[in-house]
UniProtKB/TrEMBL annotation:
Coiled coil (UniProt feature): none
Listed GO CC annotations: cilium
Classification of source organism: Eukaryota, Metazoa, Chordata, Craniata, Vertebrata
Superkingdom assignment: Eukaryota
Gene Ontology BP, a term: sperm axoneme assembly
Name by which UniProt lists this protein: Abnormal spindle-like microcephaly-associated protein ASH domain-containing protein
InterPro entries: Ig-like_fold, PapD-like_sf
Length: 308
């Protein structure tokens, strides 16, 4: 055990002898250990017990080891004696793992502790040099005996990156160790997946549909990120797309008529033709929900075309 300059007593108890025995305690060791017993050679009756006291008087700034020999009949029992000088015993967690984060300039914080299991204060120092947005506080200090100190590690997830950094930690009376700082920063991605094989969809294909009828297609909306996300479906009739079935060799008068037709259909509310259910919500991390798309071409398009 740890000791200071004052003597520390320890007791050795011998009991339950089954016959009369002579207890001899030769003490070969050092003056740091002192055995206190009125009679070193005594007879102990069966069923009785006696107590011996050992005092430890440290005279050097170093750990001491010895042994106490107890002779009981023809047997000798060895009792180790260990005297430790006061010291600190600092311990720190070896890793700070932020896990998977979403890029967005948000600052994340993790806390670890430096624990002192010893009997005297201990000094620590942390050194970290890198271009990454990682801040450690405090980087030095004193941990009192039988207590701990909280160390905060801040990390700004400003861009997608895989972080695997090391900070040098110096603990008193211990070799230097390295604190591993890890994180995986990803983009917040929402994806549309095929309901049959979970493959990513670039578009929803309704195929051929008659006027006055409806065609339904289903897909999975997937939050492929570690944080919740709010979503809303907005129908845009002016988005960039691909025009199919256009005859680039047609006459000028036919092309002008088509331009008039395009002007008319642009005034139609696209939500009356294509709808999405549900059209808004909140997705938890890595959650998938089923959404339904409905395409309903209206005969009124033909009527409007006939009134030109």
């Amino acid at each position: 055990r740890d000791s200071n300059t004052s003597p520390r007593p320890a007791r050795a108890r011998v009991s339950r002898c089954l016959e009369k025995s002579s207890i001899k305690t030769p003490f070969p060791g050092r003056i740091s250990f002192k055995l206190i017993l009125t009679n070193l050679d005594k007879t102990l009756a069966s069923g009785l017990q006696t107590t011996a006291m050992v005092e430890y008087h440290p005279d050097k700034n170093e750990d001491m080891c010895d042994q106490l020999l107890i002779s009981v009949g023809n047997k000798t029992i060895e009792i180790p004696l260990i005297g430790l000088i006061p010291s600190c015993q600092l311990e720190i967690e070896p890793e700070v793992n932020f896990g998977t984060l979403v890029a967005g300039s948000k600052v994340y914080c993790k806390e670890i502790s430096i624990i002192n299991h010893g009997s005297v204060p201990g000094i620590f120092k942390i050194e970290y040099q890198s271009q990454l947005p990682i801040v450690i506080f405090p980087t030095s200090g004193v941990v009192q005996p039988k207590s701990s100190m909280v160390i905060k590690v801040d990390f700004c997830a400003d861009q997608p990156i895989v972080v695997n950094e090391y900070a040098k930690v110096s603990l008193q009376d211990r070799p230097d160790i390295f604190l591993n700082i890890r994180a995986h920063v990803v983009e917040q991605i929402i994806e549309l997946l095929n309901i049959n094989n979970d493959e990513k969809l670039e578009c929803i294909s309704f195929g051929s549909v008659f006027f006055g009828t409806s065609k339904i297609e289903r897909a999975l909306l997937y939050n492929n990120s570690p944080e919740p996300i709010n979503w809303v479906a907005i129908m845009q009739d002016d988005s960039v797309g691909e025009e199919l079935g256009t005859n680039i060799k047609q006459r000028t008068d036919v092309a002008l008529n088509n331009l008039a037709y395009l002007r008319k259909i642009k005034s139609i509310d696209i939500t009356t033709i294509i709808s999405c259910v549900p059209n808004e919500g909140r997705l938890l991390p890595y959650q998938k929900i089923l959404i339904t798309f409905c395409f309903s071409p209206k005969l009124i398009l033909i009527v409007q075309l006939g009134r030109r």
